[in-house]
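2024-03-11 09:14:02 DEBUG pipeline.ingest accepted 1 chain
2024-03-11 09:14:02 DEBUG pipeline.ingest length=350
2024-03-11 09:14:03 DEBUG pipeline.predict start
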Amino acid sequence: MNLPASHVSARARWRRGLLVLGAVALLVLGSFWTRPRADGLALDVQPVPLNPSNPGQTEAGPLRFRGGLWLRSADPRFGGLSDLRVTPDGSQMLAVSDCGRGFVATLVHDSSGRLTDLRSPRLVDLVGSDGGALLSRSERDAEGLAFDGDDGLLVGFEVRPRVWRYARSPPFAGPAKPWPAPPVDEACRGNRSLETLVDLGGGRFFMACEAASARQNSVVAWVGVGETWATRSYPLGEDGLGGGFTPTAAARLPGGDVLVLERRFPPLEVRLMRLSKADLEDTGPFEPREIARLAPPESVDNFEGLDVRQDSSGATLLYLLSDDNGCSKQAGVVPPRLQRTLLLLFELTG
């Protein structure tokens, strides 16, 4: 059947319009992938017990369970959370991800201080020193996070180990400013390098590699600031690298001691080690002391984040965060979520 010329012309114009709209859509989507952005996030938040096999369990050594959350999202940008900091009043958490993003959310505690919900989550693409997007996977692997004074956030990266400083308000605002870190790239490399970063107070910081470049029973750690760093040795535990514990995060206790979070797999297990203030002032190998351990059937996953705060009653609270290795590290590729993003709250007793 022959169509009238006017009909053919209208259909041609319609097709050309669709092609133009499609091209514009592709340009917009492409700019979203490369352009730094901060926006909302659809997040499913579910409570988790300390021990699913025994929901009534509330104690794990000196740790008293005060609530846990399982965070999930269909958004491929979410996941891979590797360290966190909680504001002193407990109202907000900040975290960094393996995929070069900052995560910001409001924490909700009930009248008894239990962690019950997480609201207003959003992601912020981390930027470089030029204010532009971090384009390569080796640039984006953020693993450590620390407060730097009242107005700064320090982000530690592995693979290409370095520390960059971002604004604290708004969180993770750039451009990034290089921060004088110790020679991490000479001590530990690749996907198991800079992992632990914490403010010790008085302008000093503690940093540690996740693993050594060769099979050893210790990793390199540092205490210092600026151009002045003391190189120390941190023990990996009784099993060494072949299944032993490695440090993934740290937090300062109110009295000046430091808690170090260690993880191993296999078997999946985490433990908390305590470094005394005197040990941090020393110059020899560190001598951490184990204070608690979590293992299945307790709610354990790939924990890589730790922070500490005191509540209004003086109780010492510990927040643990796990990395589900689930964020998209490559455009168009959504990895399977074989692990969980867990946020657990404990009170340190004793």
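2024-03-11 09:14:41 DEBUG pipeline.report Residues 5-34 form the longest helix (30 residues).
2024-03-11 09:14:41 DEBUG pipeline.predict end
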